[in-house]
Amino acid sequence: MSAPIITEGLVRRFGKITAVDGIDLHIEAGEIFGFLGPNGAGKSTTVRMLTTLLRPSGGRGEIAGYDIVSEADMVRRSIGVALQDAAIDPLMTGRELVKLQSILHGIPRAEGLERGHRLLETVGLTGAADRRVGTYSGGMRRRLDLALALIHEPVVLFLDEPTTGLDPSSRATIWDEVRQLNREFGTTVFLTTQYMEEADQLAGRVSIIDNGKIVAAGTPRELKSKVGDPTLKIILQSPRDAIEVERILLPFGEPTASEDGSVSLRLPGGSSRMAELVRVLDDAKIEIESLELHMPTLDDVFLIATGRRLEGSDVSVAEAAP
């Protein structure tokens, strides 16, 4: 079978507005693929086209080998979708919903019960399976939605911003469940998110979309390596030493803008040069309060690619460029 997700020049227009502008994707079986971008970038429009909810204006796409326009029924049979705002009946129990979902997919009763029990166990809801969903927390509802989306063993699972609005603990739990589900079922996961950390934690490859176009693509490590060297921030006990420290450390790397009482520099080699740098400062009798080594992040990648941070920061490209 061809790759589970393929698009070629995929376009969607709304009147004179081009929401998705000729994107190409090739996602292999078993991947967790991160699709990143701010609100309005084209993420949700792309997902709606790939899940047959919206007809493309141009280009083409395939899911599990089926054309998203001419073979839409087969595409829908091949995918699971967990949306950001899942419409789950609060008066039903988790077990009842999983059973209903298996019936709707035409799964034989015994097989549906076995799959449902296994999925509820996988997402950590066995103890709450017989409680009404209205009593579930936001994180529990998201985990139940994952189980519902996987009951028919789809080839591709679409996760649309699965942790938006969740607290850090619930977010980490969802990440663990996604990893486990991917390992256990081998399902290809298409993850849309606004959170760079989420993509960094989960995705083997990512694409960043901005104004309907793919502006960066690759593994998180590849993308971060293009940003530049890590930055070392040195907090000094005496701010008056800052100018002298910048002079002493010039052989180590390029100084960058820093706050009063600290010195920052780009440090080729990162942690491997820290011991040598500390010895030089110690020989110069410079008293240090702390050292902080900051590695490039996917948010830095987004800033370089688009000229702004994902969260809408007004930091310029010049300030972030290596």
Based on CA inertia axes, which overall geometry fits? Answer: elongated
Helix share bin: 25-40%
User: How many individual β-strands?
Assistant: 14
Q: How many distinct helices?
A: 12
Strand fraction band? 25-35%
CA radius of gyration is 24 Å
Biggest sheet, open or closed, and with what strands and sense?
6 strands, mixed
Structural class category:
alpha/beta
Amino-to-carboxy terminus distance = 42 Å
CATH topology of the largest domain: Rossmann fold
Low-pLDDT stretches: 311-322
Major sheet: order of its strands?
6-7-8-3-9-10
Account of the 3D structure:
With 322 residues, the chain is α/β, with parallel strands linked by helices. It folds into 2 domains: 220 residues, P-loop containing nucleotide triphosphate hydrolases (Rossmann fold), CATH 3.40.50; 66 residues, Alpha-Beta Plaits, CATH 3.30.70. Helix content is 36%, strand content 25%. It is built from 12 helices and 14 strands. Strands 6-7-8-3-9-10 form a 6-stranded mixed β-sheet, with helices on both faces. A 4-stranded antiparallel β-sheet has the order 2-1-4-5, covered by helices on one side. Helix 6 links the parallel strand 7 and strand 8. Helix 3 packs across helix 4, helix 4 runs antiparallel to helix 5 and helix 8 packs across helix 11. It is elongated and about 75 Å long.
